[in-house]
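Late entry, evening session. Most of the bench is empty. Finally got around to the prediction I had been postponing all week. Sequence below, unchanged from the version circulated by S.P.
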Amino acid sequence: MMTRDQLGREWQRLKEVELQSLDLKEAGEWPPLLRALCVALVFLLAFGGLVWWEVSDKRAKLAEEKRQEARLLSEYRVKASEVALLPNVQNQLMDLEEQMGRMRAMLPTSAEIPSLLDSISDAAVDNRLTIEVIRLRATVSNEHYIEHPLDIQVRGGYHQLASFAADISQLARIVTQHDLTIAPVDGQGDSLRLSLVARTYSYLDDPAGAQVTP
């Protein structure tokens, strides 16, 4: 270990060294203090590079972990929100099922179609209309239900026809009205002819069958 005097002399020699004249090939002849400083500098650079490489790798992993944490937190919040809404969704589903049950109860079975035609005929008679046509078309099968179209053609006054259409819409079973046309009847004064296609529906699982012959 250098004494203070030796260290002072080495430091003086180091100050006298011209850095521009230093040659790496002659590094063995450099002053000991300069060689020690160069070794320390190389060590620090190597150590700093190693630390930087380790830290950058850890920093990348940390950034990825933070992104994953944010993603998982977002998913958790979404699922927590869905769980919080689950009771409301279940209640809405129950309400919907009840509504579907009520609507299904309003659909006639295939066996009830003839009596539905009688109800429509009665509505025409009650409104003092002349019945020209009330008959079933061929049924149409869809994915979950069967459609029963009816051709209706009646004759009478405007208010009577309007009342008849309202009575059809208020039947106990669901009947929809389509392609309504009203035209004057030649030679009948104020008499009008109402033509329309009414449709009612039944489920495919109706045990009474899918086809009703008019």
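Two things to note before I forget:
The radius of gyration is 48 Å.
Residues 206-214 have pLDDT under 50 and may be disordered.
Will write this up properly tomorrow.
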